[in-house]
Write a structure and sequence with these properties.
Elements lengths: L2 H7 L11 H16 L6 H11 L8 E2 L3 E3 L5 E3 L4 E2 L3 E4 L4 E3 L4 E2 L4 E3 L1 E2 L4 H4 L2 E3 L4 E3 L3 E2 L2 E3 L4 E2 L4 E3 L3 E2 L4 E2 L4 E2 L7 E4 L4 E5 L14
Parallel strand pairs: 1-4, 2-5, 3-6, 4-7, 5-8, 6-13, 7-14, 8-15, 13-16, 14-17, 15-18, 17-19
Antiparallel strand pairs: 9-12, 10-11, 19-20
């Protein structure tokens, strides 16, 4: 297994400074900067940049910006999904976002995981590659269709958020969330199921 294959596989220690991965990150960071320097009205320019940065995105994906992706090529985004300002994705590992997902301001999706012990975490010189590196591993993130991830949410590696779920503002998601759940907190916990009683048609006082 190559270092890149280990990163994409997940749960395998790999060298993030091997096999062109630093150059891949530099390319993504440059494209993010170019995107962040555009105005909302520059739709053609934004589309051109996103086509290079996020080749696995569906139709009508809108990213307000600023955005920050570590790689870009390791994330899939489904049709009609939206992300508000300051969307951060450390996609050393695989990230899959479904269709019609709403993502609020200051949301972070973090697949990269560093060792807990500093002896394993600190940089060191790798004689095989001739560069200073460190060791890390990844865990994938999946957000299924029709979810709403509210403002200031952090989603950690290894998490799947089930279809139709809502994650409350400020939550830190460390474990899977079942479909059609309202979940909040740090660590994020399910409060209750989302039901027909939550439909707007059952709340005429809001109109």
């Amino acid at each position: 297994m190559t270092e890149r294959e280990k990163a994409l596989h997940g749960y395998k220690i790999y060298d993030p400074f091997a096999e062109g991965m630093p150059e891949e990150r530099t390319r993504a960071h440059r494209l993010c900067k170019l995107y962040n320097d555009t105005f909302d009205t520059e739709t053609e320019k934004r589309e051109e940049i996103l086509s290079a940065l996020l080749p696995k995105r569906g139709k009508n994906v809108y990213l307000q910006g600023p955005i920050y992706f570590d790689c870009g090529v390791n994330i899939e985004i489904g049709d009609d999904s939206f992300a508000n300002v300051n969307f951060v994705v450390l996609d050393e590992g695989r990230v899959k976002i479904g269709k019609s997902v709403f993502i609020g301001p200051n949301v972070s999706l973090l697949t990269a995981i560093h060792p807990l012990c500093y002896q394993d975490r600190n940089p060191f010189f790798n004689p095989k590659t001739g560069v200073v590196t460190n060791l890390e591993y990844t865990a994938p993130i999946t957000i299924e269709d029709n979810c709403w991830i509210a403002a200031n949410v952090t989603v950690c590696g290894g998490v799947t958020i089930g279809e139709g779920s809502v994650i409350g503002a400020g939550s830190v998601v460390t474990k899977d969330i079942p479909p059609h759940s309202l979940a909040v907190g740090n660590p994020c916990r399910v409060i209750r199921k989302i039901t027909e009683a939550d439909r707007l048609s059952n709340h005429p006082e809001l109109f």
